[in-house]
Amino acid sequence: xxxxxxxxxxxxxxxxxxxxxxxxxxxxxxxxxxxxxxxxxxxxxxxxxxxxxxxxxxxxxxxxxxxxxxxxxxxxxxxxxxxxxxxxxxxxxxxxxxxxxxxxxxxxxxxxxxxxxxxxxxxxxxxxxxxxxxxxxxxxxxxxxxxxxxxxxxxxxxxxxxxxxxxxxxxxxxxxxxxxxxxxxxxxxxxxxxxxxxxxxxxxxxxxxxxxxxxxxxxxxxxxxxxxxxxxxxxxxxxxxxxxxxxxxxxxxxx
Length: 255
Prior knowledge:
With 255 residues, the chain is of the alpha/beta class.
């Protein structure tokens, strides 16, 4: 009998053991023409690199990271990297969206276009680091690094592909602030997968734009816990959605 999952990271490790080559995240952007597909193994690699980046920066389990990023494959690896390292996340998907009350992050991950907001937040609480992401195709570095930030893409690539924590991660500790602990996220993700009708081997299509930003519980945790995959369609062209559904063998459309 399979062991019960203790955290989103345990779900990712189970997926890696079961089928590392399975597509886990496929992302389209109808504004840029981008299509990127990440296998379980590729996601796991990025997650380890992100966890190592946090550990190298002295961020310990139980600390908090603010994540000011929209639904994007790089957002997924940042969230999962934080949770692999035992770091709680205060999440905000759109500019000006408040974090959970009394969040004092040690580090901040931000979209480049929210750098000023992130730097102000980091300065207010004395954050050690503000990493900015371009969210460009192929995880390209920033053309110009905003003042007060460090380029995540440049820093993370040099990190190790395997993560060995200095301290044991407490899965009863906070995971997504305002939502639940690391362990509770598994239960909540399973509940959401069931509500969405998402089964093992399924694929959920999630359409997003600047105004429509689903909870990472629905598009990161629920598919992972269910043993499913996600197809992110950013800035969707309505004329293309049905073709994406067919070509990607989508089983559930998020609404």
